[in-house]
Every structure is written in structure tokens, then in C-alpha cells.
Q: What sequence folds into this?
């Protein structure tokens, strides 16, 4: 406010974080404007600086800040997730280029790892595209009543070969009851596959 009184031109809005007594913080966009002294002409810029008053308007932007923070965290997490399969692909390509695979069995093993890591990267990209479509409101959701157990069993069958390749034993322990749900089959199936993977 003091700086606004001293200047002849308005300052651009600034962002300000305020913390209350309980430690909770809120973010505000602050705009300040110099005002004329009472009884003086309306043009504050022509008044002596010491005679000016100033007014500040605070607009709560905490929700936007929270969204920005979540997006930054999301980008960081996705970048980390993508680096892992890329590092694996690069390492095995280098091994192949250096002639480390001297027999067909070893070479096939290296190629299988590269293939599985490329598939994982493709799944990550597909998930990002799906998320973008959902956030943009262009994802087509077709809800139908279906069996939860049947869908989970299908998801188990999809990831079973990947688990076997890593010597992981998967066991389905589903309820004997018929559990019905009303949801988009493909989206729920993809979510279950993602969790199992």
C-alpha cells in the first residue's frame, strides 16, 4: 500500500500467501490503487504523494494454487515413471550394442525386456491421453450393469503372463457372491489392470 501511494502508476497485481493462527495458508491476488485525499479532485495521481490514500483488493486464488501444485506434482510423478522404462530400454540396447548377448537365448531375453519396457511406456502414455480426454470432457463413458468378479477375473488373466515372466504368483480370491456394478467396462478394466500391473 505504501509503495502504491508513492507511485504515479498502478502496480501490477501480486500474489500473496497469508497464514492464519492455525497455520492454514491461503493465496490471494492483490491489486492496489492510489486514492485522492478526501475532498480533493478524483485524479489521485495529481495529489501530493503524502496526501494520497490507497486501497487494496484481495481475491482468493487458493483453489487455482492448489490445482497448479497438483499439476506440478503430477508432471513430476509422470516424468519419474517414464524414466524407469526408458532407462531399462537404454541399458539393454547398450548391452546388445556392446555384444553382451553372445547367444540367441540371452539376446531373446534382452529383447523381451526391451519389449516389456516399451509396452509399459506405451501404457503410461495411453493413461496420460485418457486422463487428458477425461479432464477435457471428451471421454466417452458408457455405463452398463455388469459383474465385478467377471471383470476382475479378466484383469487377472491379462496381467498373468507378465507376472509369470517375473516369477510372481498371482492368485484370484474373489467373492462367490454375484457383485453387480454400474460402470464403464473398459475404464474399470483398465483401472484394475493398472493396479495389478
A:
Amino acid at each position: 500500500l505504501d509503495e502504491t501511494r508513492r507511485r504515479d502508476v498502478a502496480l501490477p497485481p501480486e500474489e500473496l500467501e497469508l497464514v492464519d493462527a492455525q497455520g492454514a495458508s491461503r493465496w490471494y491476488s492483490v491489486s492496489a490503487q492510489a486514492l485522492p485525499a478526501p475532498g480533493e479532485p478524483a485524479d489521485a495521481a495529481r495529489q501530493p504523494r503524502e496526501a494520497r490514500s490507497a486501497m487494496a483488493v484481495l481475491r482468493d486464488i487458493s483453489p487455482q494454487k492448489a490445482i497448479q501444485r497438483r499439476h506440478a506434482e503430477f508432471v513430476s510423478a509422470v516424468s519419474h515413471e517414464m524414466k524407469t522404462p526408458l532407462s531399462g530400454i537404454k541399458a539393454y540396447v547398450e548391452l546388445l550394442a556392446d555384444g553382451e548377448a553372445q547367444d540367441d537365448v540371452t539376446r531373446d531375453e534382452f529383447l523381451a525386456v526391451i519389449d516389456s519396457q516399451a509396452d509399459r511406456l506405451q501404457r503410461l502414455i495411453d493413461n496420460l491421453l485418457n486422463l487428458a480426454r477425461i479432464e477435457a470432457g471428451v471421454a466417452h463413458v458408457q455405463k452398463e450393469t455388469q459383474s465385478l468378479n467377471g471383470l476382475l477375473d479378466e484383469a487377472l488373466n491379462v496381467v498373468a503372463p507378465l507376472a509369470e515372466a517375473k516369477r510372481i504368483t498371482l492368485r484370484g480370491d474373489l467373492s462367490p457372491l454375484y457383485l453387480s456394478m454400474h460402470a464403464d467396462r473398459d475404464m474399470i478394466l483398465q483401472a484394475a489392470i493398472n493396479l495389478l500391473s
About this structure: The chain has a mean pLDDT of 84.
